[in-house]
Structure formats: C-alpha cells, structure tokens
Amino acid sequence: MPLREKLISFISTYVLLPLVTLYAYMVKNPKTQEYFESNGILYLGDVSVDYVNDFLHGFGTTEFLTHVYNRVKNAKADLAGCGLAGHNIIIARKPSLIKAILVKDASHFDRVHTMLSLKGDYIVSKLMVFMQGEDWRRTRAKFESAFTPSKVKRSFEQANQLGKNLVAYLTRELDKDPEKGIDFQIAAHKFSLDAAGSSTLNLNTASLQTRAPSRFEQISAKFFLSFDSFANWWKPAFIQWFPRIAMYFKLTVVDKEILQFYGHVTREKMQNSGGDKNSNDFVGLVHSTWQELYGSHVDRPDQEVWMTANLFGMVLPGYKTTQTLMAMCAYILARHQDVQDKLRDEINAMIESNGDEFNFAAVDTLLNLHNFQSYKMSLREKIISLISRYVLLPLVKLYVHIVKNPKTQEYFESNGILYLGDVSSDYANDFLNGYGSTEIWTKVYNRVKQTKADLAGCGFIGHNFIIPRKPSLIKSILVKDASHFDRVHTMLSLKGDYIVSKSMVFMQGEDWKKTRAKFESAFTPSKVKRSFEQANQLGKNLVAYLNRELDKDPEKGIDFRIAAHKFSLDAAGSSTLNLDTASLQTRAPSQFEKISAKFFLSFDSFANWWKPGLIQWFPRIATYFKLSVVDKEILQFYGHVTRENMKNSGGDKNANDFAGIRMALVQTKMMLCHVLKNFKLTPSPETLIPMKFVKSAFPVMDTEEVIVCCTKIE
C-alpha cells in the first residue's frame, strides 16, 4: 500500500476500531441472544465489530452480508439471527417463515430503545417498525390480513405473470446472440425488483422490459449502494449523536431522489385508490393506518411525508419476500428450459428418423454433457495448504522436472493432438489446496471441452495421458498407440506395486505387439454393436428404477444424481466385465457400488498417499512385502470375478468384456436418450432457493442448492 493508505489503515485499526468496539458493547441489546435461542433460531453472535473491521479494510456492506449469510448456509439453518450495532438482524432461508418474521415478531427485531437508532431521522423515524405497545398491536393485526389466502393467491398470479415476463426477457436477450447466452444474475436482479414493486406497491416497474436499467432500478440502487462508502456514513452518525438537531433540520439518510419517487407514488395512489383496503398492495394499509393512528390528532405527522416514508419502508419487507417469488421464478424457468426442450426435440427426431429405434450412428451424433462442482477449504485445510505450498510443492516441481518425458509434446503435436502441457504441478497445487482427484481431472477435461477438441493429451509425472471426447477415436488411442501413452522407463511408476505392476500397460517390445493385436479385435463392428445393445438395456433399467422411485412419492421427485451414479457403475461393470452389477435394482448401494467407492475415493486424502510414495521410492521392498495401492476388499471382489469368468467362458475371445469403461461416452448419451424421452428434469420442490448477495445488495438464486429431479411426462 502507499504510505497514505498505510497511515489510514493504522489509524483505523488502532483508533477507530477500539472506539467502535466499545460503542458496540455499550449499545448491545442484552436480550438478543436469549430471544433467538428461546425461539430455536441459530444465533450468530454480535457482528458489529466484524462489520466495522471488514469495512475499514475495504469490504463493502454487501460483501459482509454475504459472509454472514454464508455462515447460515454452511450451518444448513433455515433461520438465523445476529446483533448489529444494537439492532437484531434476522436471516431467513425458508420462505414459509416470512409471515412470522415480518409481521408477528417484527417488534423484536428492531427496537428503538437501544442506544443506536435513527429516531432523529426525519423520514426513518416515521416507519411503523418503531411502533410500540397498543399502536403496534393494532397495526400488526391490520397487516396480518395482508397474508390471507385470497391475497396470497393474487400475489401468486402476479408472480406467474412476472415469470412469463422473465421468460420473454430471456427469450429476447437470447435471440440477440443465441451462442453467447446471457448472465442470469442480471435477469434475476430485474425480476427481484419487479417482484418487490408489484407485490408491495402494485406498480409495473418494467425492469424486465429492457436491458437498460429502469427508473425503479436506478432509484433502488441509490439506497442499496449508498452505504458501501465510508464517506456516506457521516449523516447517520450525526443523526445518531444529535437527534434533535437532525430532526429540526429534517435530515435523513434517505436520498432526496428516492423521496421524490415515493412521494409521487404516494400522491398517485391516494388519488386513485383512496386507501382501498382490498387492493393487492400495501398502499391502502399504510393510508388507513395513518388515519386510525393520527387522523383525529391535532399534533400529527404530515400525511404525505408519513406515507412516503412507510411506502419506501414497505419495499424492504416486500424485498425480503422476493425469495418466495424467486422460487416461483425457478418453477417457471423449469417449465421453459430451452436447452432441455431442444435436447428432447433432437432425441425424438433422432428416434423418429430411425424407425422408432436407437442405433449407434444416430446416438453418436448427440452431445455428451459433463458437470462438476468444487468445494472450499476449511481454515485447518488452509493452514495445511500453506505449509504444503512452501515445503512440498517446490519438491514436487523439482521431481516433476526430473521425470518429465521430453518426447511428450513432440508426439502429441506431430499427431495433431491438442497438447495441454504438463499438468503435474497444477495437479499437486490443486491437491494440496484441498481438491480431490476427480475434481482436478474434471477441470482438465473441461479445458478440452472448452476448446471443442475431440482429442487432447497432457503429461503427468512422467506419464502421457490422453483425453478423448469422440468415441470413434478410442480404438487408435487404446490399442494402436497405447505404448506411447504410459512408459515404464520414466522414473515414476508403480512397477514395485505387487498388483499394478502386472498391468498390460507396462508391456514392451514383442509382448506388447502380440497383446495389441489381440485387443484390436475388441473394437470390431460386431463388438461395438453388442456394447450398444448393452447400453440400450441399461437405459431401460434406468427408466424402471426411476419409475419405481417416483411411484413411492410422485410429488416429491428424486435426486437424479443418485440414479446417474448407479447407471454409470452398471455401464462400467457390464461393458468391462460383462457383469450384471445390479446397482439400478435397489435404492441401497450394491456390492459393486461399495467396492468402486473404495477405489475412487481412496486417493482424495493426502494421508492415503504414503503407500504409493513408499512403492515409488523402494520398489524392491514393496514387491517383497506384496504392497499394493489396491484395497484388499477390491482384490477379493475382482479375484472372485476372475475365477468365475475363467470357469464360465474359458477366456472366450468373443466375450464382450474388454476395458469398455471408455465406452461410457456413448452409454451416457444412451442414458440421456432414455431419460429425456420419458422424464422432465426439474428443480426439487423441496429445494430452498436461498439468496445470494451481489453488488446491488439484491438476492439472486443460488443454483448450487437446486437439486435436479425428474418427473414423468404425461
């Protein structure tokens, strides 16, 4: 940092922060923790000092709120609360809790008798949230009527129309550039604003009508972004310390342009509705509340100013209910998924053009989809990562340089294969930062996918790896050129592993030539056709599994990831070993699922790498003691499979049991054909649509929390 920034940082840390800490202690509401915990609400503690500390270090309000919200999300709580400068803040992730939070218990969440308040603010002091005693009880009863079934039904109709508006907006934007796509956060931001404006004020705020910000967007941004700068905090501080002076000069934290906008809305609504209590907005309720509380009083607040303040204030709880409306939005989008519809149309057209039958050539033209997610490290993992980065990673990089195969790049490029470089250091870096092997290889695969290459290669600790995306290339990769892709003469190998060292991939010279000729026959047209028939049967098994699960609870739906996991295992078992692994027969994990999990998860922990390390450095000792990275239970299972196959087939050359796990590219397409023909993929009805703060402080859908389910096509 420049000297000036260092000086400011020093003053902020050692002067302002201690003062704020003392102040936060003074205004802390002593009943906050008791109230939250007695009502079964997760209590996050008082976050005042954390807020100021982050703020002084350059983090805005929205970043801080995101951090607090993520604490609730990580705890998987539906409801949480915290203290902030004497105020009680509630964070709800379950829409059904909104009524109790915003109406029945509102007086518990923001108390004017705390030392920190804006009771000297000319506008904010008029908000109904500051009411106490009998006034609050009467007002609360009035606003509870806003949540009657008829009002909720009318709100749903509004939300349904907003959903249609959103679909129209997305369609227009996608038509402008179909290949590019659009940022859904922008659409969700506009939807949230229109939802708040329509349900709170019965206004058509028209945010979804244009790409440019609407007037309502601009007005709302003035408030939600106004406190992301330290310079904007002088006014609330002045109002806090000198409330009488502030009230005399009519000071307020609310921008003048906001007041003009809501003042205009107030006048229009008063003229047109006359305070209609049956209108599906809060204007009539606010108007009648003023009449009941102050209509007969001589000393009363200005009606227009009071209503303007409370209409603006009503947008905030209306804004909080946006997560309910976003759930409706997700429902609308699930019924208008262009990508899913286009895929379904493509599949149906493919089936129709082939006489209502599947065939290999047709399915081979369909796209293969791939998804992944990663996770963030805990503090402990970060500490371990820090140590690993400056001790282990330099050693790994040196070792990688020693064992690197100098001919790798030349071979790949001379054969027209996309070369990704040596990924050893990247792998080690990601692994030491808490990513598992599967996440890392997914990341590598996505590099190939993004370049739209059919074939790519990379170096990895002295080994050459090939990544194919086109099934027709598999024959040449696995058979003709296999000797180029994994060389035993590199310094890193598992030639000391009692089991792995016996793999045919380590063969050289004449042995490899004879073996290669044998395995070429596994890719004859008849073998591929037989594998296709297996995949087709697996698709039918998957449909049967989904039907059974959906029949148990048709409305709930099921987590499609479980079904896809079982399908993948059955595909690998059938095409590789000609086994019926029966994963799709029951909801509970099959024996093959359990065995597979032992291997695929065994290297996602750093602690499990001691054995391959020992085998690498001391191969003779490892061979003597018959050490192997393969789990004993896995060996027992495959040993049994080997004995059974030898007895039953006698090594039949025509058996369809080559390493067809590579054929999963085709089988995945088959699975999609069966599923999309018979089912619609939708977000789970049980999924909570939580909010995620962005720079504008508006919540948008967090798609990581949406579970994909399938329902039958009627």
Could you characterize the architecture of this molecule?
This protein has 714 residues and is mostly helical. It folds into three domains: 134-330, no CATH class; 379-492, no CATH class; 523-712, Orthogonal Bundle (Cytochrome p450), CATH 1.10.630. The protein has a three-stranded mixed β-sheet with strand order 1-2-3, sandwiched between helices. Strands 4-5-6 form a three-stranded mixed β-sheet, sandwiched between helices. Strands 7-10 form a two-stranded antiparallel sheet. The longest helix has 28 residues, at 149-176. GO terms for molecular function: heme binding; iron ion binding; monooxygenase activity; oxidoreductase activity, acting on paired donors, with incorporation or reduction of molecular oxygen. Its cofactor is heme. Keywords: Endoplasmic reticulum, Heme, Iron, Membrane, Metal-binding, Microsome, Monooxygenase, Oxidoreductase, Transmembrane, Transmembrane helix. Its main location: endoplasmic reticulum.
Question: Gist?
Answer:
This is Putative cytochrome P450 6a17. By secondary structure, the chain is mainly α.
Q: In order across it, which strands form the biggest sheet?
A: 1-2-3
Number of strands: 10
Q: Give me the number of helical elements.
A: 32
Largest sheet: 3 strands, mixed
Low-confidence stretches: 98-116, 274-278, 318-336, 367-382, 478-492, 649-671, 686-710
Q: Roughly what is the average pLDDT, rounded to an integer?
A: 64
Q: Write down the overall geometry.
A: elongated
Number of separate domains: 3
What fraction, in percent, of the residue positions are helical?
55-70%
Rg measurement, Å:
32 Å
Cα distance, first to last residue? 63 Å
Decide which structural class fits the backbone. mainly alpha
GO cellular component, one term: endoplasmic reticulum membrane
GO molecular function: heme binding; iron ion binding; monooxygenase activity; oxidoreductase activity, acting on paired donors, with incorporation or reduction of molecular oxygen
Subcellular location: Endoplasmic reticulum membrane; Microsome membrane
Keywords: Endoplasmic reticulum, Heme, Iron, Membrane, Metal-binding, Microsome, Monooxygenase, Oxidoreductase, Transmembrane, Transmembrane helix
